[in-house]
# Entry
Amino acid sequence: MILLPVLPIILPLAGAILCMFFRKNLIAQKVFAVIFSSLMLTVAIGLLMSVRGGEIAVMNVGNWPAPFGITLVVDMLSAIMLVLGGLMAVAVSVYACFDLDQGRTRFGFFPLLLIMMMGVNGAFVAGDLFNLYVWFEVLLTASFILLALGGEAAQLEGSIKYVALNLLSSALFLAGVGILYGMAGTLNMAQLAVVVQEGGHGGLVTMVAVMFMLGFGIKAGMFPLFFWLPASYPTPPAAVSAIFSGLLTKVGVYALIRMFTLVFCNDIAFTHGLLLVAAGLTMLTGVLGAASQHEIRRILSFHIVSQIGYMIMGLGLFTTLALAGTIFYLIHHIIVKTNLFLVAGAIKRLTGSYDLNLLGGLYESRPGLAMLFMIPAMSLAGIPPLSGFFAKLALLIAGVQAEAWWIVATALAVSLLTLYSMTKIWAAAFWKAAPADALPCKEPADWRLFLMPMTVLAILTVCIGVFAGPVFSLAQDAAAQLMNPAGYIHAVLGGG
Amino acid sequence: MTSIILRTATRYMFPPLLVFSIYLLLRGHHYPGGGFVGGLIAGSAFALYALSFDVASARKLLRFDPRAVTATGLAIALISGLPPLLSGKAFLTGTWWNVPIRPGVTIAIGTPVVFDIGVYLVVLGVLLSFVFLLAEEE
# Structure
């Protein structure tokens, strides 16, 4: 079992190395990408099984004991995120096998995807703050190239915004790490938690907490620094924007959850209150931004922002139920959002456009595709019995219990506006008659096979809705583990 | 660049630079040095060659594509972390074997130096990918 926590990092690296050796052989690269992301998913499921009982898997790389060495820690939240990451990697690499142009594949899409997954997985298992920073850099560097790959003008414009804001966020993160190290003399998260709990550092901890909130907030796409997201996500090909929208902002959310449950919980009224306000504003601005858009992927990108608000809301409320709601929301959102971007890519592959004004009549001509869009879209809006309904319900109940009425009211209003946006896409792309100047539909030969990843994700969305009980109890266990950091600290530092 | 002085100097400097880079790589085991700085020196030797002659002949001198060098380095670094797993230790734990070369004389061969060789190749490969591509851009 000693190997298990490090496998999510080794496997994508090994896959990327193999892809680099077969630089000229694109078919081999596709095969490796699918095989290694499937292996990653398998390992992640194995990890989730082994930490399901509440124990925490810890590995000290190089056998240097914590808190001196680099520690990899997998608790239930990490394991859940790893499973979701693996699932998205499989879905997107299968999708990209069909729908990615030769040029981008030859310039290394698959090795970059795997390297990015290594960074994402590394961030999920990092038990050391500086190590977390390094994994963030790994995934960002890979994502910079993925975003700009192909070099279209719009892509480069989006990439510049993305790179600039993310470098700012990394600088804030790094400065925060430096101050924390100067204050506590350690960067091991478990030991940091101990040192901060002991107190005696005055307002400095709160100040660093706000720095981290800003740093991770930028990466997560939180208000007020989210504008890089709708500017950059709609520009690359569908496969890239799907994996970005599913996973990258969620790494920021994961880091926020980790830091603000484990380390920064000494001034909850202030820090978590601030998070809650930011959550409300994030939801609202995101959904209002979406309402004014007419391009499918721009609408979806603004919705990522608004959905991030819901996840932060659970963290801001800071009760076990609210955190469970956040985790359930993460599970629901990653699957649904990636799927929506993939379906948008399928629409583009079929008709050649993302613009709602040029689309129409797809329900008549492609009822199957319409269903594939309908399920995640309605789930996103929170229509029962799909997964989004239960995620929102849990958060709303938690809000009512905490008597935070204004955030409950905001969440409800935003939910309604989300439904409006989704029906807008539905009505324009699927229901209305095709406009006279519509582009002709061309069905590629491998169409049915191509729809596989989307079908599987849609079925998962339905399953999460139908089996909401077991999934929610999983989320609840993970939340309970987070609310009681003593277990984490004990697992890493041992008996002390 | 067609300076005869630079060309002649490069011809003389190239082998010592490579030997020095290997020296730094091995020295890194116990003293300052290591794969990173060794790889940089080796890379600068090839970059110097590319500057004073041309990129095509520098590529020919390297024999392998720089990207293949990078991939090999990554693979070596990754593999160096695996042996400790066989004895149930954590990934990347330093592991040594005592290899007898003569009766009474053994050499300790460990995984850290293998890891360093991987780093050396990665640095060399990445550096030369950049240098060659930028030099060919003109």
Summary: Chain A touches chain B at residues 2-3, 6, 10, 13-14, 16-17, 20-21, 23, 59-63 (CB under 8 Å). Strands of chain A lie at 57-60, 71-74. The mean pLDDT of chain A is 90.
